[in-house]
Amino acid sequence: MKNTENWKKSFFTMYIGQAFSLLSSSAVQFGIIWWITVQTGSALALTIASVVGLLPQAIIGPFAGVWIDRYNRKTIMIIADSVVAISSLFLGISFFFGTPSMIFIYVILFIRALGETFHKPAMQAAIPQLVPENELTKAGGLGQMVNSACSMVGPMLGALLMSITTLQYVMLVDIIGAGLAVLTLSTVKFTKHMVTSNSKLNVIEDMKEGIKAIKANEALMRVSIPMLLSTIVFVPLGTLLPLMVKTYFNGTAMQNGIVQTLFSTGMLIAALVVSITGGLKKQFKMISIGIVLLGVCSLLGGIIPANMFWLFCIIVFIMGSTGMFSNIPFTAYIQKTVPQENLGKVISLVTSVMSFAAPIGMFVAGPVSEIIGVSNWMICAGVLMLFVGMLCYFMTRKFDEAIAKEVIEIE
User: Fold this and answer.
1) Structural domains of the chain in order of their starting residue, each with its CATH number
2) Would you call 179 exposed, middle or buried from its count of C-beta atoms within 10 A (0-12, 13-18, 19+)?
3) Per-residue model confidence as pLDDT tens digits over 90-109
């Protein structure tokens, strides 16, 4: 049984360790993306890099979920952290023999994403093994605080390192971060999670069980549709932000670092608010509001003139904060309502579908942005996000009302 009083100790021990890995990975990821931006100046190159980074989750994610539910989740996280560190080591070494090809860069991004494909769902599935059910939304906020803090500091650290050294030395930072994460994670004790059956591993049958668990949850099915649509529209925006800074605002690596940091700062503050308050009682309404606000920010970000970079920074900050209003309650709802024996499969399946959706948006956004400009794409994306947010509200409001009635009956 989980210790309902001391869950925060184990939870933060895990997340503090992961903070080392998240911080170094954020700095390294910034370095790689900025290097591609400077070397190519192409929205298409950034789109390819992002798609390559999402392919492992899209293709392998459902299979990863089966393993996550079958085997020790802590061990899976440790192995995944190690794979990411080794890939960074190979890329760092390659620069000592000359400038690596873009294909090699894409391969490294693929391997790093492969590690994340196992790591993130394993950690999300392991959280209910540490945290009481009624604290999952707050725990999600606390976890996002750590993620956001690392994402906030990471780009600035990456920008600083890129300004004083070259990419090969920046890559070595990841090895140190991963090593510290593995050491810390090894000290955390998780309760054992239920396994669907004692039968031998059958990937297809286990995946079917995950699909059945999703289909049996009508509210999850409903809210996943607008979340899927918002992923198609919004993910390309984050990918193209460095190009927006460089081409539209004629910015530098440091200015791009400021934008990335402000985005993460907004995430951090929003996650802090959710972790303290638990967010709105009507969680589906909270998701809808978050999507609508993302649309407003995107629309404003595309409209402002090129000489108002400071205003763009403010908009990006707000954009980062509003994103948390959708992601945190969505993940918490899955953790609350899906049985432990299927949780890893469901999280991986949902994440994989989202990862399939993201490249669809990128394949549209990349070429279109080359033609009409990134700022005009932000305007189009903003209008679409407003529509998706309203769609989410009308599709899910009945579930908020049903949950509210259940709470009243219990009281």
Assistant:
1) 7-185+216-410 (1.20.1250.20)
2) middle
3) 888 888 887 788 888 888 88
